[in-house]
């Protein structure tokens, strides 16, 4: 799933390549991705891209008024969605429901430059909203403070009195916006914290370490991602990971074996040597007892 660094890089790419270009046509190939009907997608035709922004893990493409209020195309790529930039595209409208294409935006001219929204697999969770105000999107309205702007004291305030495991809290977008499964694994590994540590029970020193790790991991990932070609972003993300998606490999810090805990539809990775005092966490595939 694309997270804060990748969405930041996609927004940067669109600001560099799509800004000041007019929409020639919008092709909708995946109706299930559209979550709004008013205004219709046809309202984008003739409007000029004025910028791109990030709200947590949401990507927003901004369009000038024509006349009236500016419009915002709000995209949540979910687990298997992606944005692909193209310099040329087929002029023939795609057939709805065929293949991974959900939406295609032609800029300058039909068949010219623009971008596609695609989604792999059968679980269609990619969402697209066309709104006059980003706050109209329920997921954006619920977002907590952005992870990159969060101060140490603000983080401490968010953790105080909370009963959730720290892994659960980090990926809760209503608490902290922008962090997903992969970077929460990396942050906790860097902070030397167990994923099952109680959020409200962290010491001042552990909160210091968590905030430092959060800033370092995300800032490094953003710096590595911004400026990369869109096609390179997924590989760039994988190359920077130390524990996430590395089950069975040696930890690059202590050499212990990276372990995994799996649930019904997700899994996370951690290093026992760095994070849990050498003790493996119980995997719910094998036991319902979590120590």
From TrEMBL:
Domain FPG-type, first and last residues per copy: 242-276
Cofactor: Zn(2+)
Enzymatic reactions: 2'-deoxyribonucleotide-(2'-deoxyribose 5'-phosphate)-2'-deoxyribonucleotide-DNA = a 3'-end 2'-deoxyribonucleotide-(2,3-dehydro-2,3-deoxyribose 5'-phosphate)-DNA + a 5'-end 5'-phospho-2'-deoxyribonucleoside-DNA + H(+); Hydrolysis of DNA containing ring-opened 7-methylguanine residues, releasing 2,6-diamino-4-hydroxy-5-(N-methyl)formamidopyrimidine
Protein's UniProt keywords contain Zinc-finger: yes
Signal peptide: none
Superkingdom of the organism of origin: Bacteria
SMART domains: Fapy_DNA_glyco, H2TH
CDD domains: BaFpgNei_N_1
Pfam families in UniProt: Fapy_DNA_glyco (PF01149), H2TH (PF06831), zf-FPG_IleRS (PF06827)
Keywords on record: DNA damage, DNA repair, DNA-binding, Glycosidase, Hydrolase, Lyase, Metal-binding, Multifunctional enzyme, Zinc, Zinc-finger
Name of the featured protein: DNA-formamidopyrimidine glycosylase family protein
Source species: Pseudonocardia hispaniensis
């Amino acid at each position: 799933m694309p997270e804060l660094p990748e969405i930041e890089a996609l927004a940067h790419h669109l600001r560099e390549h799509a800004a000041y270009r007019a929409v020639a046509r919008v092709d909708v190939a995946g109706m299930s991705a559209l979550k709004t009907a008013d205004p219709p997608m046809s309202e984008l035709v003739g409007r000029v891209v004025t910028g791109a922004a990030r709200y947590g893990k949401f990507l927003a493409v901004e369009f000038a008024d024509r006349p009236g209020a500016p419009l915002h195309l709000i995209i949540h790529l979910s687990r298997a969605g992606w944005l692909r930039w193209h310099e040329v595209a087929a002029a023939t409208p795609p057939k709805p429901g065929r293949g991974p294409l959900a939406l295609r935006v032609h800029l300058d001219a039909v068949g010219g430059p623009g971008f596609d929204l695609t989604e792999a697999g059968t679980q269609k969770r990619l969402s697209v909203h066309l709104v006059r105000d980003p706050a109209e999107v329920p997921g954006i309205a619920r977002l907590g403070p952005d992870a990159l702007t969060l101060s140490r004291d603000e983080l401490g305030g968010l953790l105080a009195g909370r009963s959730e495991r720290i892994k659960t809290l980090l990926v809760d977008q209503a608490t902290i916006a922008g962090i997903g499964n992969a970077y929460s694994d990396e942050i906790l590994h860097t902070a030397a914290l167990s994923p099952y540590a109680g959020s409200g029970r962290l010491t001042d020193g552990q909160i210091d370490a968590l905030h430092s790790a959060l800033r370092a991991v995300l800032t490094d990932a953003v710096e590595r991602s911004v400026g990369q070609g869109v096609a390179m972003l997924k590989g760039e993300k994988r190359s920077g990971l130390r524990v996430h998606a590395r089950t069975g490999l040696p930890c690059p810090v202590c050499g212990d074996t990276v372990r995994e805990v799996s649930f019904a539809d997700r899994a996370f990775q951690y290093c026992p040597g760095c994070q849990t005092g050498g003790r493996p966490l119980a995997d719910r595939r094998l036991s319902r007892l979590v120590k």
